[in-house]
What does this fold into?
Amino acid sequence: MILLIASLVSAVFIGVTLVHVFFPLRKRGAVLLKISLGTGLGLGITSCVLFFSLFIFGPRFALAPEIVLVIMALGAWMFMIKRGVPAEVNLSPVGREKFKYWQILAAIFGVSLLSSLVSFAVSVAQEPHGKWDAWLIWNMHARFIYRAGEHWQDYFHSGLSWTHPDYPLMLPLSIVRSWNYMGVESLSVPIALAFLFTCALIGLVVSSLVMLRSESQGYLGGLVLLGSPFFILMGASQLADIPLAFFLLAAVVLFFVHDRSSGRRHPILIMAGVAAGLVAWTKNEGLMILFVLILVRFFLVAAGEDGWKGAVKQVLWLMAGLVPVLLVVAVFKMHLAPSTDLFIDQNIQKIWARLTDLQRYKAILYAYIQTGLTFTQGIPDIRTGFRLNLGTAGIVLLAVYLFLSGISVERKDRGNILCVLILTLITLGSYFVVYLITPHDLGWHLATSLNRLLLQLWPTIIFIAFIVARTPEMVSPSEEHRRRETGAVLDKAGKRKRKGE
It folds into this structure.
């Protein structure tokens, strides 16, 4: 257990150090934000380091580069303690009035968090090996790599296509990494990783909204996420969808922070590039999400105040963090990964026949609507079909909240909000096309994957909804705020009157 903790602490330590050096911010929510970002980024970065260590040095010296990273992180902290941290990043101001009932919201969030952790523990106790894809894909890949020793690459050429050896290795190598620390396989490792990513994602949603909007908005955003039973279930299932959701939201949050900031902004883009790259290192669909995210971001920046020169400059800073991770993905895809099952035994005639089948369009559209309204509540049973549960649909809850609260958008946030909306639409459209041409049974493919694909976008959708919604402080201002506003209005009226005289 001590060695397991050491393996996780070292990864988090590396990640938090990177975030603290690149993102020196002292603000409400900043500590939780740094810990949340550092946890996920640290685990992702150390999995990349382990891949290159295995590929270049082999299993015997696999942990040597990571030890160097830990020493460098220690040196960075010693330097910062002695010389001080770099200049602080400043965010543009937003309303900072506290909601008069914020303590009640905090208490409700605390109870919900405790309840969710209990649900997580119960799910793990019931299925310690995780759901189907966990033990058939991610954990199995980890076992093959760990047990094969010097022959760890043989698995990718074994012909076991039903285990999807083409899937990226962020999660399996994170498991292998801790097993290398411990010197033995242990079920506690994938469980611990699932717990860390789930908690980091919750912390990221809450802390980013606290920092960019208000404390009450952060608690409300966290409550919506915790109020999605499917999120907790998938978190405990040891799948890669929660890590992917984390890295996507991390990249989006860092874009918001960059555009709101003054001072040292370029290091924030480097971190955003790392997070975006880790989306592609987590699952195959992450490559498409990464490409769309960078492309949409580029054109929106180019169309704004910064123009084409500013867009090119931003992309270059993004590439500083993105390229090392993309190099890992490229080496894996070109040298190890076999072809994906979606394109095996495919030809133009088969694809065209599916594209011209109107019944497939109808089935996919129907699944989109039904799953969109029910996916937050759990996995639809493929034997009984989709079940509509409008009373607790997460997307309906967000729509009602936006309608009741109204919308208040910061000028600097508009580009990023539009970026996420376009990204979401293109991503859903891309999935639609994949379902159209899939060689698998369409009903089975939709029932077993669409809800998880939507879950990958869900935390980012929650974040955007609470970014654009008016805060409770705006809807129900405090007495002190009212007095200040009244005084400001009277003062302006007095000035106008004196001018008229």
